[in-house]
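In response to the reviewer comment on reproducibility (Comment 2.3), we provide here a single inverse folding case reported in full, input and output, so that an independent group could reproduce the run without further information from us. The structure tokens appear first.
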């Protein structure tokens, strides 16, 4: 990984991130070919990007529509205080099925949506 003094990634690191984001299950050899590196230096860069937190993990996208009717649940959470620490703690205590949570305003501190469809999780507040 080629981090510079101001922690910017070089063009190869950005290519790696782009490829991994598109197809996280590709082999290191496939990734190396896609970004124009030999396999060993490519793996070294990937490990560096993981260690530095640029790659937080690898996941699977599920077509939720295939499961049939899935309820979408919205919950408004009002915090006693609006400090960053309180917001972080409330997100940590969310149910495992929570797919997203967003700060809406100071009046409604957070909206939690239990659906994989972010478009379905949009709430407007009067």
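Designed residues, in position order:
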């Amino acid at each position: 990984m080629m981090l510079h003094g101001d922690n910017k990634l070089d063009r190869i690191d950005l290519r790696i991130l782009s490829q991994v984001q598109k197809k996280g299950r590709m082999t290191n050899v496939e990734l190396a070919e896609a970004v124009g590196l030999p396999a060993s230096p490519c793996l070294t860069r990937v490990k560096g990007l993981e260690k530095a937190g640029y790659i937080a993990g690898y996941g699977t996208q599920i077509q939720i529509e295939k499961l049939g009717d899935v309820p979408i649940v919205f919950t408004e959470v009002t915090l006693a205080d609006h400090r960053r620490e309180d917001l972080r703690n409330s997100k940590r205590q969310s149910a495992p099925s929570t797919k997203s949570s967003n700060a809406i305003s100071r009046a409604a501190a957070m909206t939690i949506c239990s659906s994989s469809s972010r478009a379905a999780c949009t709430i407007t507040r009067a």
